[in-house]
Amino acid sequence: MPLEDVPDPAFAQHLVGDGMAIDPTADELRAPCDGVVLAVHRARHACTLRTASGAEILLHVGVDTVGLGGEGFTVHVRDGQSVRAGDRLLSFDMDLLGRRARSLVSMMVVVNGERYSVDGRRTDREVAVGEPVMEVHGGDTATGAPEDAGDGAGTERRAVRLRIAHGLHARPAAALANAAKAHAGPVSILSGGRTANAKSVVALMGLGTALGDELSVAASGPGAASIVDSLAALIDQGLGDPVVTVATASVAPVSATTPPPAEAGDIAPPFVAGAEILLKGTIAVPGIAVGSAVRLFRTAVPIVEEGRGPVVEERRLRDALAGVAARLETAAARRPEHAAIFEAHRTLIDDPELLEEALTQMSAGKSAESGWSATMRRHAEALSRMADPRMAERAADMRDLEQQVLEVLAGRAPRRRLADMVEGAIVLADEFLPSDLADVPPGRLGALCMAQGGPTSHAVILAASLGLPTVVALGVQARRVPDGAPVILDGNRGELRVFPPPEVMTATRDAVTLRAAHRAENRKSAALECVTADGARIEVFANLGRAADAAGAVAEGAEGCGLLRTEFLFLERQSAPTEDEQAAQYQEVADALGGRPLVIRTLDVGGDKPLPYLPLPKEENPVLGLRGVRVGLRQPELLRSQIRAILRVTPAGACRIMVPMIASPEELRTVRTMIDEERAALHRAEPIAVGAMIEVPAAALTADRISAVADFLSVGTNDLTQYALAMDRGNPHVAAQLDALHPGVLRLIRLAVTGAGRFGRPVAVCGGSASDPMAAPLLLGLGVTELSATPAVIADLKAFIRTLRLDDCRAVAEAALEMDSADEVRRLVTERWPEL
Questions:
Q1: Is 269:480 a contact under the CB 8 Å cutoff?
Q2: Which backbone phi and psi does 294 adopt, to 5 degrees?
Q3: Cβ of 107: how many Cβ atoms within 10 Å?
Q4: Strand-pair partners of 691
Q5: Residue 160 to residues 155, 206, 218, Cα–Cα distance (Å)
Q6: What is the DSSP letter of 94?
Q7: Which of 15, 347, 511, 745 is spaced 20 to 30 A from 190 at the CA atom?
Q8: Could you report the per-residue pLDDT of 419-434, keeping only the tens digit for each?
Q9: How far apart are CA 246 and CA 678, in angstroms?
Q10: Active-site positions?
Q11: What is the Cα–Cα distance from 356 to 360, expressed in whole angstroms?
Q12: What is the C-alpha separation between 521 and 517, in angstroms, rounded?
C-alpha cells in the first residue's frame, strides 16, 4: 500500500522518509536488498540497511510496536553485518502483534532521502517473495552533507533529558531530524559518549537512546543558539510522543542478537555443464536476456610496498593520474548526456588533498601504488561510514578510481571494451565502471551481471539508459561462471541461471522475442482510440499521482486522466497549498495532456491520512470516520480553495471535478452548490462536470439517486471492496482475501451502472481493477465504458480490449455474478481468455 495509507502520521506524511508499506502475511522480515545492517533498534521492531549506493532503508514492523519493548520479536542479525536480499533479519509473533500492536502494516522507507528518489512502487496488490516493489534512485552528489557540530568557536550546546518511553525510535527521530534541518549549519546530538548527525533519522535511531538518557544538543554557525534552544524544547516536550515521568517508567530488556552466519569460503572452481545453477542477486534494471556469458573480471594488481625514491614515484603517479583523467574526458565526450557522472570522477582525480596525502607516503619510501592505494582506501572507508548517501556513493567512486590508477601504474592495457563485445553478450564483472559503458551503442549487449555493486550506482544509471537488463550483488559465485556458458539473466527477479536446459533456453528466448514484439506492436497503436472488436468505444485513461507523470502517461497511450490524486500537493508540508500553487500544478497536468480530459479528485485525506495543519479529532476507526468529502464539508474553505483552483484551469472544458467517498445525494448536492457559487464569483460562464466516486456500498445501492445530481460516476474498487467485504486493507489477517472480482463487489458495480443508466450517466472504474486485464472483460460486460489505469499497463490493456466482443463480455459477466468466490470468477475468465 502507499505510505499515505499507513495509520501513523509520521509515516503517512513522509516525515520519516519516502517509500511504501506492506501488509505482512508471513512472520518474518527479510532483507529487501543487499546491504549492511546499520542498526537494529533496541526494541527489535525495526532495523536499517545501507545499500552499496548509500541509500539507507528503514524497515519498521507494525505501527507503535516499539511499545512492546522487544516482546514477540527475535533478531537474526547484528549491527555492521552484511546481508543479501532475502536474508532473514527479524522474526515476530504475528498473533501477539495482532492483539497488542496498533497495526501490523510495516513500512519500508528511505530515510536519507534528500538525494534519493523513490518510484516504481507496486501498491494496492499482493506481491510474492522476491518480487520488486519499489525502485530507489541515487541523487545529486554536488554538495556534501552537514557535518556534526564540533567544539570550535561559535558552537552552542544545551543539555536535556529524554522523557519519552521508547527513546528516539522512528517517529520522534523523524520529528527531531526535520526540525534540525531548519538550521543551515551542522547540528549534532551527543548521548552516552556517542555523537549523531541530528539531521539523520538513522543516526539518531542508532544512538540507542532510552527513557531518562541525557542528551546534549550542539550546533554551530549563525543562529546556533536559537536552534539548540528550539531542539532542546522539542525533546523536552516529547517530539510528539507522550512525556513519561522517568522515576516510574520501566523499559523491557532487549536480549542480544543472534550471531550472523559464517562468511563464505574461498571461491570454488568454475561451474561445469550438466546441472543448472541459480545465482540470486539484486534487481538493478528489469528485463530478461538469453545468451552466452562473457567474463570481464579484473585481476588484482600486485602492489610493491617500497618505492624507487620520491621523485620517481611522484612522476609515475602524476602520469597515471593524467592518463586516467584523459580517459574520463574521452568518456564524457562519447556520452555527453551523462557527462556529469564522468566529471564527478574527474573531480576526485584532481583532488589536491588526495595527491598530497599519497605524496607524503611516497616521501616516507612507499611506492606510487602503495601510497595511492592506502590513501584511497582510507578515505573510502571513512566516507562509507557516513550517513549521507552522497558520501557513500563517493566512496564507491574512490574505490573504482583506485583500481583504474593502479592498472595504469602496472602498465596494463584497458580491459576489453564493452562496445567490442559480440552482439547480445551477457557480460559478467565484479563491478562495471561508468567509463566501461561510455561508448556502448544501444542494442549491442544483452545484459550486465555484477558480483558486487549497488542498484543505483553510476554504471547502473548508464545501463538503464541503454535498456540493458542488469543484476548486481551476485556475490563471489559469479566468478565461477565460465566464459561462453549459456545463461539466462532475469532482471525482473534478480536471478542468473547458468547452464539451463536447452529447451528452457529456447523457450525463454522465444518468450522474450514474442513479448518484446507484442509490447512494441501494442505501443505503436497505443495512441489510437480504444474500440472493441464489435465497435464499442471504451475510453482508457490514466491514474496520476503528480504533475510530472502526465506526459509519460500520454506517451503510453492514455486518452486522458481519469483520476488525479491531488493529495501530492497537500502532503509533506506544514501548511496547505495556496490556491495559486494548486492552479499552477493542475494547469501543468492539463497542458501535458494536450486538451485531453482531466478528472481532478478533490482532496481525499482524513483520520487515516492526517495532515499537520488540518485539525481533526483522533478516531478509533478512521476508515469509517472523517474521510474524503466529509473532511471537505467539515473544512469548507479548504475545499473551496481547491474548487477555485480547478475552475481556473484552461481550456475551461478540459477539467472535471470528482468528489470522493460520496454516501448520499445530499453530500454531492452541497458540493455542487459550492462549485456554482465559486464559479459565479470567478465570472466563469462555462459549467463544469461534477462526478461522484462510488466507494461506499450505500452509494452503489442508491446510484440512481446520486446520478440525479452527478454528471458521471467513477467506481473506486479498492475502497468499495474493503467496505463491501468488511475486510480492512490494513489488517494482515484478512487483507489477502480482498479481491475486487468477488461476486458481491461485481453486483455492486452492476447496480451502480444500472442506476446511472436511468439518467444516461457514464460509469468509469478508477480503482485497482482498472489495471487488471482479467477484470477488463467483466467490467465491460457490466456496462463500464471507461477504465482509468496505471500508465504502464495502458498500451497492453488497450490492445487486449480491441480483441473483445461485448456479447462475450456480457455473457461471462453474468456468469460471474452467479459464482461463489473471486477465485471461481478468475478461473472463469482464464478459461474464456487463456492468454491472460
A1: yes
A2: -125, 120
A3: 24
A4: 658, 712
A5: 17, 18, 11
A6: H
A7: 15
A8: 778 889 999 998 887 7
A9: 54
A10: 458, 766
A11: 6
A12: 6
